[in-house]
Amino acid sequence: MIQRVERAQVTIDDFVVCKTGRGLAVLLGVGSDDTSDDVEYLKKKLLQLRIFPDREGKMNLSIGEVEGEILLVSQFTLYGDCRKGARPSFSRSAPAPMAQTLYQELIDSLIVEGVAVQSGRFQAMMRVSLVNDGPVTLILDSKKQFY
Question: What pLDDT band is residue 147 in, cutting at 50, 70 and 90?
Fold first, then answer.
């Protein structure tokens, strides 16, 4: 899930561990069948999405064009399946070692592209706060890239 933000931050145990200004807050769910190909797809999409307003107010600019920042937070609960019973099933979420590897791969690949990236702490209990700009919230699913 992607949100265009004015600012965002992650707090752990009452300590702000990272914060960003204008840009994107990305909550990343890693599935058990995800690979480096999914990371590459997400990286390209995050860099190319034209969701920032130009001078006329049209969503026409990318994260690079506005020199925005990205706050990237791993969130396995995005794979929570609530269809049966009252407790979500997370059976489609990637195992932690695999998820952490792909999460870090996405962070590193965005940094290589020149984007300022801040990240939460993998598997930590975090408080994520943000000011959504728009509001603009989008869902990117690498498994639906061919529709």
Answer: very low
Which listed residue (9, 20, 75, 118) is catalytic?
A: 75
Give the tens place of pLDDT for each residue, 66-79: 999 999 999 988 98
Q: Establish whether 76 is a catalytic residue.
A: yes
| Residues 2, 137 contacting (CB under 8 angstroms) | yes
Selecting among 9, 20, 52, 76, the annotated active-site residue is 76
Q: What is the topology classification, in CATH, of domain 2-133?
A: D-tyrosyl-trna(Tyr) Deacylase; Chain: A; (3.50.80)
Query: Is 77 known to be catalytic?
Result: yes
Question: pTM of the prediction?
Answer: 0.93
Burial class (CB in 10 A: 0-12, 13-18, 19+), 96: middle
